[in-house]
Amino acid sequence: MAEYAVAITGASGAAYGLRLVRVLAAAQHRVHVVVSEGGARVLRHECELSLSHQAPSAELLAPAHAAQIVPHAFSNYGACIASGSYPLDGLAVCPASMGTIGRMAAGTGENLVARAADVALKEGRRLVVVPRETPFSRIHLRNLLTLQEAGATIVPANPGFYNAPQSIGDLIDFVVARVIEQLGSKQDLIEPWQG
Ligand SMILES: Cc1cc2nc3c(=O)[nH]c(=O)nc-3n(C[C@H](O)[C@H](O)[C@H](O)COP(=O)(O)O)c2cc1C
C-alpha cells in the first residue's frame, strides 16, 4: 500500500478533500492529513465538521479508518512530510485555495502545506493540485502555470456530466477519482468511459 498526503485548504469544496482522505484510507493507504486554518473554517461551514487545524482528529477525518490517518499540525513545517528524506508517494492539495496556490508557486514553505508541496516538487514526486475559484484572475492562472511547469498536475474541481451523475456525491466522486488516478493509484469510484 502507498503513503499519501492530503492537504485540505480554504477553498470551497472541502467535501472533495474529505472524500479523498476517506477513500484513500478505505483502500488501506496511509494518509497524512494537513488542514489549513482556512480549510478548517470551510470544513465547518460546508461539511459541518469541526476540526482543529493544529490537531485534526483522525476519527473525524475518517471515522471508519482512523488508524490509516496521520494528522499533522498546519504550522508544523518540521513534520516528516516536510522533509525530502521521507518517502511519500504523493501529495494532493484538495481543494487548493488561491492563497495556497500563490504560496506554493512562490515556494514560500511557510506552513506545512506550502513546505510539503515545495518538497514534492524538488524531489520530483507527484503533486496534484485541485484549484477552486471562478473566475480566475491572471495572477491565479500564472501561479497555476508556474506549478504545472514545475511538475505539478492541475486537476480543477470541475466534474464532468457524461456519466449521468445522480447526486452531489457522484459529482464529488468524479473529481476525487481523477485525483486518485493522478496520485498514481487505482480507483473504482467512476467507470472508465467506454465510448
Ligand atoms: C466559505 C468560504 C469559501 C471560500 N472559498 C474559496 C474558494 O473557492 N477559493 C479560494 O481561493 N478561496 C476561498 N475562500 C478564501 C480562503 O479560505 C482564504 O483566502 C484563506 O486565507 C486561504 O488560506 P489557506 O490557503 O491557508 O487555506 C473561501 C473562504 C470561505 C470562508
Describe this structure as you would to a colleague.
The chain has 195 residues and is of the alpha/beta class. It is 39% helix and 16% strand. Helix 4 packs across helix 5 (112-122). The structure holds flavin mononucleotide (FMN).
N-to-C SSE string, H for helix and E for strand:
EHEHHEEHHEHEH
Count, helices: 7
Content-based structural category: alpha/beta
Quantity of strands, as a count: 6
CATH superfamily: Flavin prenyltransferase-like
- Give the biggest sheet: 6 strands, parallel
Helix content: 25-40%
CATH architecture assignment: 3-Layer(aba) Sandwich
Please, how many domains?
1
Per the CATH scheme, the topology name is Rossmann fold
Strand content: 15-25%
| Ligand roster | flavin mononucleotide
Q: What spatial order of strands do you see in the largest sheet?
A: 3-2-1-4-5-6
- Ends apart, CA distance between termini: 32 Å
Mean pLDDT, all residues: 97
Q: Specify Rg, calculated over alpha carbons.
A: 15 Å
Which regions have little confidence, pLDDT < 50, spanning 5+ residues? Answer: none
List keywords for this structure.
195 residues; alpha/beta; Rossmann fold; six-stranded parallel β-sheet; 7 helices; 6 strands; binds flavin mononucleotide
Offer a concise description of the structure:
The protein has helices at residues 14-26, 37-47, 58-61, 98-106, 112-122, 138-150, 168-182, and strands spanning 3-8, 30-35, 69-72, 90-96, 126-131, 153-154. It has 195 residues and is α/β, with parallel strands linked by helices.
